[in-house]
Structure formats: C-alpha cells, structure tokens
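The record is passed on directly below:
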Amino acid sequence: MAPPNIASLGTISIFVDEVMELVELDNLKDAIVGLLGITGLSTEQRKRLTIAVELVANPSIIFMVEPTSGPDVRAAAIIMRTVRNTVDTGRTVVCTIHQTSIDIFEAFDELLLMKRGGQVIYSGPLGQNSQKIIEYFEEILGVPKIKEKYNPATWMLEASSIAAEVRLGIDFAKHYKSSKLYQRNKALVKELSTPAPGAKDIYFPTQYSQSTFGQFKSCLWKQWLTYWRSPDYNLARYFFTLVAALMLGMIFWRVGTKRENANDLTIIIGAIERTMLY
C-alpha cells in the first residue's frame, strides 16, 4: 500500500479502508470498543485494532510484544493471520512470542533466539517446516534428533537449554559466533548498513502530519463522538448538574440582598468550602 496523501481526505479514507480490510475489521468498523469482557470488542479484536492503529501511520517496521498471548488458539491464529497479511504488504514485523504452537511458530520467516543474559544462539531463517533451525541444532554433536510431529519451538528450547549446555559441555552462544551462519549475518549487516550510491537521508517537511488546527479539529471531533456514544454517562452528568444547581439555588435564595444576611452568607460559603475540602 502506498502512503496516503495527507492533503486529501478522500485518499486518507481510502487508506483507512485498506487497513481495515487488511486486519479483517470491515464488519466491525461501526462498533464501539467498549469495556473488556463486558461490552464492545473482544481481546482478539482489540489486538487487531491496535495493529490497525499503528498501520495507519504507514510504518515500514512494526514491533509487537507477544501478540498471541492471552486469546485462545483460534483467536491467536486470527491475530497471526493479520500479522502475516501485514508482512505481505512489504512491511517488516518483529514479534516476541511465548509458548507458541507449531502453526504460529512456522508462520515466521526469521528467528532470533537468545539465551538467558541476552546472548544470541541463533539468528537466521526458519525454513519450510522449521527445517533450517532443526538442521542447525541437529548438526551439533550430542543434540538429540527431533521426534516426529514434535513442536519444533518446544524442541528448540529444550535442545538449547542451560541443562543441555551443562550436559553437552558446550556454550551455544560461542558455537553460534563460530558458525558460518554468524559470518553470513555479519557480512549482511555490513552490506545493508552502507547507503546505496545516490541515496538521500529521510526528510520530513513538518514535525507532524497535520497542522495545529487540524489536530485540534480531530481531537474535538473524537471527544464529541466519545460523549455521544456514552448516553448513560451524559445523562448522569446532566442529572447531578441539575440537582447541584437546584440545591445551591435554594441555599443561596435571596441571601445577600440585605446587609444583616451578609454574615450568614459568609458562614454558608465557609461551610461549603470545608465540606468540599474534607
């Protein structure tokens, strides 16, 4: 998807529609987010909405922290499908995942595996059916072969655990740094860190995509919609405002019109202030 032209509301609307379609929220475009577990969107739908909010800024790279944690297996699969759709648009998505299933694990293209202490023990492609990472660890002397139909994510963690390092007498971080994969990655980083001939630095003419007045209008319209989407809240506010107005009106009715009532007015005001403070 091409970046939207901020000067054209029509282009912005089209771009938003594309994002909604990308995260599969077309049928919920008029829904209210609501309260989690009570009204509105479910946990899985909220996560997809969070992804959509980031996508409308048209970033080239997106970082996600455990997007599949919390929802059930079906919801996690839907979220992962959204992530995959995002990657298919040409963007890079970096995720941290926890206790993942085979299907979710093998939906990724690259894996960065670190052991305790932040030391890298694998950085490279997963391959079809996780074949690349399986081959990498099975080549290490003493690492057991993966069992048939076993989750490669679980096997990978078991094969590279601290207990496995002690049993095999090997430091997986040092083994990775001495591998051909590390040399290839190092050469790739050096190549990509060198700007291409004729490349120019990224430049933005303004700090924000909208003017100050445009931001004010957007925030005002958002607040307007928020109030009108909460009729119960507004009704309660109007009711308490009316009650407070009537109560204060009756308390101060014709007070202060005569000089002898001035002291009473001062006493009433002092009592009200003490009540509000305590």
